[in-house]
Specification:
Number of helices: 0
Radius of gyration: 13 Å
Helix content: under 10%
Strand content: over 45%
Largest sheet: 6 strands, mixed
Structural class: mainly beta
Amino acid sequence: QVYLMESGGGLVQPGRSLRLSCAAAGTITSIHAMGWYRQAPGKQRELVAPISHEGNTNYADYVKGRFTISRDNAKNTVYLQMSTLRPEDTAVYYCYAQHPVQFYWGKGTLVTVSS
């Protein structure tokens, strides 16, 4: 069993930055894929960015150039550095981890971008 806990969400003004963290705990040997989804009010959950064990990344078009995903394999932690935040970035952000095949999800952390 793997448990994920996100942190770092909160209320920020447009144009500011925020860093999300997600730490995995439990019976862990090696986590493969990790990443972040988000779900805005009234919308479906959408993939923000994945990152492989080796550090290969991809980004949704709406966050390219603004968000950076990274991970620390020794700490079983994935991060999402968000900059130039926009009101439309407001959402609950969920991290996920694949171990070894099954996907696990965090409970989510709310990011609200508003002036």
